[in-house]
Amino acid sequence: MRRHRLIVGNWKMHKTIPEAVDFLGQLTELLTRGEYEPSTGVKVVIAPPFTALSAVAAALGTLPFLLGAQDLHWEDQGAFTGEISGGMLADIGCRYVIVGHSERRRYFGDTDGIVQKKAAAALRHGLHPIVCIGESLDQRLSGQTEHLLSTQLTESLAAVSKEQAQDVVIAYEPVWAIGSGHPATPEQAHDAHRHIRTLLIALWGEDAGERVPILYGGSVVPENTRNLLVTPYIDGALVGGACLNPVLFAKILAVAGSLN
Ligand code: PEP
Q: How far apart are CA 47 and CA 58, in angstroms?
């Protein structure tokens, strides 16, 4: 089954509102010069910090990109100082939300149980959760990658029904590849994605399990995009560092578009 390609840009804690608007102006100019044809079947999501969501929504102008957030709280409202709910994200125009990014797991204590509650909250509010999973270098070197991916995936998705599966996106992000300049090889990514696909089918059956897009994330740059995305097991990319630069991001979109 050929699933649509999806490229997600995670800005992390980068860009003020003027910087965000400037980025989108430059990106629009690059794309309208014809370096990327938006009708190629590549879906693009931009996930700015919360503070820039409205400005990005407005500055997207004619670009057919979708808005994403980088996290949400699992409750719908209440006394949770500093937090943002799924309803608030939907309200501002978000369609996607990243959950369980390794930085959230590492610095903010997000466990698989918390990721499970966040994914469920996203779905309750009509948002597509982008559920991130991935092994550390130690786990890879000690042969635990598949076991770790199985645990993270099944625990994070335990509250998602088969009917809701079509709204979920998985991102395989080996922790050692994030921001390191050392991406997984296409073979390593291929093997991990194949394992994840098998798990999704075991969880939700052939039809629903085949529909879920699985993105690769970790040091994606224009030069390695083709080799990573060319395998049928990899449906797209979650891009960090390279999505902050309009030229690099436009190039990644161009490569992704050329593969359809
Ligand atoms: C990420 O943080 O999700 C990521 C993939 O970052 P980078 O592309 O910089 O490795």
A: 14
